[in-house]
Amino acid sequence: MSLVYCIAILMAGGVLALLLKQRQAARMVSLIAVVLAAIPVLPLVSQGFGLVPAGPELNLDDSQWLAAISVSWIEPLGVRFLLAADGFSLSLILLTLFLGITAILAAWEEIQDQAGFFYFNLMWTLAGVVGVFTALDLLLFFFFWEVMLIPMFFIISIWGHENKRYAALKFFIYTQASSLLLLISIWVLVIGHYQLTQQWTFSWFELVNGESLPYGLWIMLGFFVAFVVKLPGVPLHNWLPDAHTQAPTPGSVILAGILLKTGAYGLIRFVPSLFPIEAQQFAPMAMGLGVISVLYGAKLAFGQLDIKRMIAYSSISHMGFVLIATFTWNAIALQGAAIQLLAHGLSSAGLFALAGTLQHKLHTRDIRRLGGLWQQTPRMGAVGLFFVLAALGMPGLGNFIGEFLVLLGAFKVAPVVAIFAAAGMILAPVYALHIMQRTFHGEPQVAHPVPPTDFGRREMVMMGTLMVGLLILGLAPFLVLDLTAPTMAWMVASIQ
Fold first, then answer.
1. pLDDT at residue 380 in the model
2. What's the rounded Cα separation, in Å, for the pair 87 and 193?
3. 395: closest CA among 437, 359, 343?
4. Could you say which of 233, 246, 277, 482 is the most buried, measured as most Cβ atoms within 10 Å of its Cβ?
5. What is the pLDDT of residue 50?
6. Helix 138-159 vs helix 115-134: crossing angle, to nearest 10
7. Is 384 inside a domain boundary?
């Protein structure tokens, strides 16, 4: 029941924030709700170490599941209220709650109007994300998939920046088109399973243990495209730069830090396990798209003059490593992908929070209007340098561990893919250090009417916790590796 409590507390916190309406009360209720939602989840962490992978016939009673609930919901169609968490999903739930607190701190002063409605949307987005990471009934998964997307549309369209309506509409069209494709693919898969077994079910456990369908490749492509849109991967990435750029700071934190991870989670959890034969056939194409995402995202990041667009394109590059890892069928690469998801979530959240602070204080995101900020804001400059080093893959920080393990695992399976993807780690310092130089060093390019103020206590607490998280991932990656090992070992075994 711990998973139900977590989701219910987040939803209830959002409703209460909406009813209170006052800004101070709404944000405090939201903050308390996220902290309370973490309480039933935290005890699961100690249980996650030392677990063993499940056998070839996966079921809910396997020891790798740390928490689970299964209740009949729509009996005629075999739909169940089925939630379960293993080490992999638990790590992403913790990331969600952690960045939820970060988003609230980022919204502390920025969100002034309709605060109750904002925090309602934020809380329900978090609840939807937790549901996505735990739902193992495909129809329930789709329900939570929509719950997390619709509130984000309102966050962008109401509290975004100058072109917020355009960005929100673009985000809505891309995500809803992919959602429709996902729903159709789920139904075709379920109907195909029914034709073979005469049994209606949306349960992932039963579908995983079922037989392959003659048209399984087309169903797999439906799942693949739906999740790659959310990842995002080239060429389905076009919505991301606009959404990130126009979203308010807490919206950008949630988008980059959490929502992109739902696409990666869907790819890793569902595509290889439901379609092992078809996924192996499609693997060369998928890894090729991953390499293109790595290189193309890095190239475009270097050419940006808007800080938030630069960070957005860098996210496309980093998520390309996850796409490569998913189709390597290698446990090392998959565990690297798990660390990469967590590390990128923390580093991108920090970078977007930094960009949001610059826009709030200087009213610009254009690097041509910046420069020389280190002298005026030394704490901001030091924090910015840390996250830039994290983004470029500095050894000792989480991003390096994730990308290194992905490349190590991929090299054993597809050396050419790994070699080309490694170029992404070479290009990352180019755009990362470029933006650092143009923003914090040199001479100020424009005389701002009001000199910017440095980070205060709230900003340093917010950034400091993200920095500690990246250091832990970089210096003690075994904490995540041990937690996710049973899941990734089973994933590899299931497709061989």
1. 84
2. 28
3. 343
4. 233
5. 67
6. 150
7. yes
Q: Please, are residues 40 and 7 in contact by the beta-carbon 8 Å criterion?
A: no
**Residue 304 placed within a domain:** yes
Cis amide bond preceding 235, omega within 30: yes
Question: Which range, of 78-92, 414-428, 438-452, 462-476, averages the lowest pLDDT?
Answer: 438-452
In a 10 Å sphere around its CB, with 0-12 CB exposed, 13-18 middle and 19+ buried, how is residue 24 labelled?
exposed
**pLDDT > 90? residue 291:** yes
Provide the residue type at 173 as one letter. Answer: I
Yes or no: say if 53 and 494 are a contact pair by the CB < 8 Å rule. Answer: no
C-alpha–C-alpha distance, residues 417 and 335, integer Å: 18
Give how far the C-alpha of residue 388 lies from the chain's centroid of Cα atoms, to the nearest Å. 19
Q: Residue 247: inside a domain, yes or no?
A: no
Cα-based distances in Å from 93 to 49, 127, 130, 212, 239: 16, 10, 6, 31, 25
**Which residue's entry shows tokens 């920025």?**
110
By CB atoms closer than 10 A (0-12, 13-18, 19+), residue 433 is middle
Q: pLDDT for 120-149, tens place per residue?
A: 999 999 999 999 999 999 999 999 999 998
The candidate with the shortest Cα–Cα distance to 293, out of 263, 315, 311, 271, is 315
Q: Per-residue pLDDT tens for 174-183?
A: 999 999 999 9
CB crowding 231-242: b at 16 or more within 10 Å, else e: bbbbebbebbbb
The tens digit of pLDDT for each residue in 20-66 reads: 878 888 889 999 999 999 999 988 887 777 666 766 666 666 667 88
DSSP calls for 256-293: IIIIHHHHHHHHHHHHHHH-HHHHHHHHHHHHHHHHHH
Distances (CA, A) of 3 to 127, 177, 209, 318: 10, 29, 25, 29
Which amino acid is located at 29 in the chain?
Answer: V
Element holding 74 (H helix, E strand): strand 67-74
**31 lies in some domain:** no
78 pLDDT more than 90? no
* Global pTM value: 0.92
Q: Name the β-bridge partners of 137.
A: 203
The confidence score (pLDDT) of residue 20 equals: 86
Q: What is the pLDDT of residues 314-333, one digit of tens each?
A: 889 889 999 999 998 888 99
- Beta-strand ranges (E) seen in 105-147 are none
How far is CA 272 from each of CA 216, 283, 296, rounded to the nearest angstrom?
12, 10, 25
Tell me which DSSP letter residue 56 carries.
Answer: S
Domain of residue 285: give its range.
Answer: 281-496
Alpha helices (H) along 303-414: 307-326, 331-362, 373-376, 378-391, 398-413
Measured distance CA(401)–CA(405) in Å, rounded: 6
Torsion of CA 225, 231, 233, 236, to 10 degrees: 60
Closest by alpha carbon to 13, among 123, 176, 174, 93?
A: 123
